[in-house]
Amino acid sequence: MKKKLILGLIAIGIILISAVYYHTIKDTLKIAKNIDKQYWNLMREIQSAHEKCTFPSTKDLGDSQSFIAHAGGAIIYEGKPYTYSNSKEALLQSINNGYTFIELDLMLDSDGQIFGAHDYKHFYGITNAPKDLIDSNSPPSRDYIKQAKIYGVLTPLTRDSINEIFAHNPQVFLVTDKLNDFEAIATQLDFQERILVEVFGLDNYYKARKAGIKYPMLSTNDFRLAKTLGIPMVAAHTGALKDEKTAQLAQEYIANGGCIMMFSTNEQSFIKQHLGVRASKFYTDFWDLQSKDCALSDKQRCKTY
Questions:
Q1: Helical H runs in the chain?
Q2: What phi and psi, each to the nearest 5 degrees, are found at residue 53?
Q3: Residue 219: helix, strand or coil by DSSP?
Q4: Which of 35, 47, 201, 288 could form a disulfide bond with 230, CB atoms 3.0-4.6 angstroms apart?
């Protein structure tokens, strides 16, 4: 009886220690389920190094370090605003407007080369492609991309034009997602020291690290899990800040040296409330760094989403 009691106390102790270290048994099981065994050593190396984010938070609404131009940044062309263009004109305008962090959605064309697009169907839709191409949801050819016009007026970004623009603007960082082909990112883009890659799932996070991606960002609202695993940078949705408990965890994560790249907002009051405290940088479409406000005259469209 005494032996059973001792064994029972030991079991309870193990459970309590696990719960304290990982906060909940559920988190422990989640970690074990999602990380392939080959990445455990890498995970331990990251934790033991006590990595901190190299892009510290700021509360300045006019600081280029505080914002990420979303999908190249919105562009107002001939009086009409365009978002999600991932176009050459949008990228160049964002650079000209002082942005140093610019997000581009990247995909691969039919030859396996990087180009700017949110997804194939969306790209075909905004380039007025024939219905059979839109329905196919297959990669476009290089020839199609080169002759296409986004919204009838804007120029698609190719691998070569992306490399050329970033070569001429060494102060600018690329933030990207959608593409989990880390080998393509590592071999086709020439400015590896200035690329932040949003990755989906813990397995992909460690794959990105192993592939040599310097700045992977885990896409998650689970700031407690990221802190536990020693992940220094995450990308998260603004909806996470609507929950008081999650917002507090975000604040603790940043205070502990982590960075949260939060998507997306054009709303001044929301940015003032959270920037530098619960969000390190905000993805934005219409934020004007000079006026420190949304660039749209119709403020009803300056929303958080």
A1: 2-22, 25-34, 40-48, 88-96, 120-126, 131-136, 142-147, 159-167, 182-188, 202-211, 223-229, 244-255, 268-274
A2: -70, 140
A3: strand
A4: 47
What does residue 68 show for φ and ψ, rounded to 5 degrees?
-125, 120
Residue 258 and residue 53 in contact, taking contact as beta carbons nearer than 8 Å: yes
150 secondary structure, DSSP code:
B
* CATH architecture for segment(s) 52-301: Alpha-Beta Barrel (3.20)
**β-strand 195-199 against 281-284: which pairing, if any?**
unpaired
pLDDT digits (tens, 9 = 90+) for 78-131: 888 899 999 999 999 999 999 999 999 999 999 999 999 999 999 999 999 999
Return the SS3 of 206.
helix
The tokens for 173 are 């960082």
Q: Residue type for 179, please?
A: L
Residue 171 has pLDDT above 60, yes or no: yes
Q: How many CA atoms lie within 13 A of 216 on its CB side?
A: 28
Strand 293-294 relative to strand 80-82, pairing: unpaired
Contact between 278 and 251 under an 8 Å Cβ cutoff? The reply is yes
Tell me the whole-structure pTM to 2 decimals. 0.86
Q: How far apart are CA 257 and CA 233, in angstroms?
A: 9
Q: How far apart are CA 168 and CA 147, in angstroms?
A: 24
